[in-house]
């Protein structure tokens, strides 16, 4: 058992001993990783089981199977009838749900802390003893198709995002949507789900995260009792997806849809992610996205296009560093009515060029860092948010230590680091530039 | 990718708060401002939740959207600071102010660090009392609202909500979008915004909840500073409106693969003596989670949708019982038939003891789980005050839930559930479905 204390926070920001709350992590004999986040403010606990498998690990032609399987994990085991898992959580006053991403699949319950053991017992059961009926599988497949309808088919923006990601990744599976391509989802079978389940659902591919009114000792005892007896799967191997080939040609997309009200431009660049023990470049990009596209009144894009000149209704930059493989850095601008997307793109490029020439405003950099420090404090208010943060990081190739180091790495970013990162990332050969516009408008 | 939809229906959580460890204090500042607070020293910040009752429904005649435009412009400069200087100052303090406007309330959710609390409060005070409302800022924010109205006009969910509201609450502010229309927004002036501010940001409309690293005395002084200079009395209430939509189907043609359906019938007020039985009844029918009747019949058994639910909507000036579902255009007709059949079954047969017990167990068991987080508790406390609930409600709420009998629920079901008043607004290209009337 290893107790890690984020010493930096207490030292660098306020003399508040409460901030140095312990995060405990340890591993069971079968390889299951456990993280405990103590918070005794309320008699509540969040129990999460994360699997190091996501949509990007699916076999070819089976897109959507990771997410489909996530739904099917509520459809029964050798001990639980279909729906009984959630019904039991509810009967105990709790709530439960699950989520799937490119790099992870996670399941959680939020319950009174004295119900933790029951949750662990049920999670351990469905980790290895899934039993699903063909009829339930077919009904649930209709549900995920309706989910795709709701999330994607009914939204012009979501449809374009799929096209953009498909263009961004030439070979890597991040180019395939998490929910799956519709024509492949329609063919997913019970056996496809079970094959995926047997390959990836095992204690040595899982992380238990418990946050709330509980001690690490209690969690250890319960985890050993319920997850401990499960056998590791020797077939689990490190995730090694295909590498992107060199990207040498910018891709430019035009998407027209009658449901788009106002044209907008979005450009994403292939960008490095946070790597274990090496988070510096990602930290610089995190700062860069905030400097360029944070608050409209203070960010580089907002000031130039929404304040100094009345050229855009909305501007933004986005970057999320946690990802197993290469991620993206994005820029968005919604031009004022009457300004074409070609003009909007020229505006955007002019602002970027000026930024590359003039560099970082040191006062803005300091404010950004101050906000990151404050975010650490505000972030402690959400139990589920903290638990989720660890889950995303640990399934994204990072360690507990990396998560604890991250605030320091962010604070150490200099303006030179930011400019170097910007120079690397703003390479149009690795970019996808998309024009999204109403069907009837010609540009 | 989340397995089911989270519902952003704040008013349903009307039913209550905390117990056990949370120690709520009711305070009155030296200047006479009431607030509920919890001192929670473990994290060095304070979450302050402020509500002004009335919200966008206080818009003056012909000024629809004024309160919303005013709200969104509050952080665009105050006193000596223009919009940029205000934003820079907020960032320097690492404070966070979120301004929201709804039909029933203007909310300000503020978070600030203990180390610079006074400065953050001074900044927020300036925003409320020395708002600049410079023309360039008004125009910029107005442009964003116009953009958002344009995108709402092509969003099936928003279209469904608009068509429903227009038909259900004609003649009342509830009938129209609180963000106004292109025409009404374009006509608004700086004077209109000042009038809108002074109409809603007033002491007789104010409710406060605070949780964090602060004691009662400090909070009292802080509130007097923060609200110094705001009017004692705001604009008059718009008055009640009766829900007026009859049963039927309204199809709004929209070219999209999945139809979005809103359905509703008359509801019940928060202060009705039958509110608890009604709440339990609707929870059994369409509450959150996978076990409601609608979720079981429509999603689990038939795979017709990803999410369906029903909820009570008690509002300031009216009330209804609403629901939502979305499904492929080819299957809307079937889905509506299932919902209608369930409505009929609920009205005639009521619920079973087992269903009632299950929902009671859930509601009472989940009760203490609501309080995780300072901001969350601050929101809950403000909600309680706005509903006129006493502090001791906290101790009695679970007993009230448990005291509801099957007879009460089923007697109420016959009265409340009205299959002939159920109206569906369908936005999409539903196959084999046409508007009634």
TrEMBL record, chain A:
One of its GO terms (molecular function) is metal ion binding. One of its GO terms (biological process) is proteolysis. Keywords: Hydrolase, Metal-binding, Metalloprotease, Protease, Signal, Zinc. InterPro entries: Metalloenz_LuxS/M16 (IPR011249), Pept_M16_N (IPR011765), Pept_M16_Zn_BS (IPR001431), Peptidase_M16 (IPR050626), Peptidase_M16_C (IPR007863). Residues 1-20 form the signal peptide. Coiled coil: none annotated. Its cofactor is Zn(2+). Residues 188-370 form the Peptidase M16 C-terminal domain. It comes from the Bacteria. PANTHER family: NARDILYSIN (PTHR43690), PROTEIN YHJJ (PTHR43690:SF17). Belongs to the peptidase M16 family. This is Insulinase family protein. It comes from Harenicola maris. The lineage of its organism: Bacteria, Pseudomonadati, Pseudomonadota, Alphaproteobacteria, Rhodobacterales.
UniProtKB/TrEMBL annotation, chain B:
The keyword Signal applies. Residues 1-20 form the signal peptide. One of its GO terms (molecular function) is metal ion binding. The keyword Protein biosynthesis does not apply. Pfam families: Peptidase_M16_C. Keywords: Signal. It comes from the Bacteria. Residues 188-361 form the Peptidase M16 C-terminal domain. PANTHER family: METALLOPROTEASE (PTHR11851), PROCESSING PROTEASE (PTHR11851:SF224). This is Insulinase family protein. It comes from Harenicola maris.
